[in-house]
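Lecture 7 notes. Example A: sequence first, then its structure tokens.
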Amino acid sequence: MSEPYPAASGLVRVYPAREPNGTGLVWAHGGGFAFGDLDMPESDWVASQLAARGTTVVSVDYRLAPVPQDWGQDAGVPPRGGHHFPAASDDVLAAWSWLVDNAARLRVDRDRIAIGGTSAGGNLAAGATLRLIERRATLPALVLLAYPTLLAVQPAPDAALRAALDGQPDADRFGPDVVRGMYENYLGRPLDSAPLAAIPGLARLVDLVQFPPTLMVNGDVDELRVSGEAFAASLSAAGRPVEVVTEPGTEHGHLNRPHEPAASVTIRRFAARLAALPTALPLPLAPPAVAEPADPATRQNTPVA
């Protein structure tokens, strides 16, 4: 089957690689933890594009947080109930386990499976990875983060970013109150009781010593990139391989706008890193047995492999 199809009792949509290169990816869309679905471009378009480049993608239909009354009015979405942490994180972990368990039949190398996501989905991917580390479970070979939100209380942007945000008011939509409110809604409780997996940017160096290699692509005029850069700095301080790219000229969410050239640039970045994941080395051949001396008189404790 080459077309996307539902699996894992509807938890995921699988995008089989057209010409599999052995890589797999568990992918989580964004939407402030409360919005988004599998049909939005940064879910469906991204998965389709990566599948066309050789990676089998498992896109996660994770449970969403509630939509409060005032949010619904602002977004044109009716208010509704929802699920607080750890529901979405649990769903991402379940999708991860499902792909690991089904890798062989999906023509995916278990040693070449990545995890990633956009915005709030990037938070879920990073948080799920921290939980996998804690559980001593199979870890991703790579973490792909697109303009992630990783801190509920962000450092202030530097002067250059602040000036860019002031110059593009439509891009200036992730100020401190908005971000804090988003996390409080996701958690359903105060921030001071939040577990690390919900706010990965708070990870200490000791929490990150096993974190997989990471590629992070941030928006240019996007206040959320402050949290991404802070997390990347922590990864680097912990000695973990991390590459951070700021896609020039972009606002938050460029993968949700496939018509923008930067969206295709980011897809190519991700596809290249996935394709470059090392394959498992073959087991070395056993050394040849050492022949015993022909003369019994010289026969001692000669080792035989």
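Example B, a different protein, same format:
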Amino acid sequence: MGLPGGGGLWHALAMDYWTGAHTKHRLKYHLVWIPKYRKRVLKGKLAGCLKKLLYQAAEVNGWEIEELSVQVDHIHMLVQLGPVKSVAHVVQILKGGTSLFLRKEFPELEEFLWGDSFWADGYFAETVGIAQEEMIKRYIRDQGVG
């Protein structure tokens, strides 16, 4: 089908493609991760603070969060990234930065989450193609209010 700009579906999706030095790319990922011990702590002020932190991290790093759902015991995110950073590095930045901040800002978490980390090890990641994108966005939105 070729790259965007030729009309039709590609023309409608042209804004989804990012341009870099000698590149045109559309790298979207569905990411999911959980708090340590899958504790149900992502609610209230903490959830609001977490959302702000994630959007700030995306803005600072040049990523775009297209959908975000913070549930009491997990996070779903649809994010578009550039080709330079690996998904593992992006998740490390998101989890590491938010862990430090949340543990400092909400010291009462120490009762539930002892140790150095707020988040459990690991994460789920999948690439999202054009045909899947709306379905994934709807799935994330339908996770409910967190």
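Note on Example B: The chain has one domain: 24-141. The longest helix spans residues 87-105.
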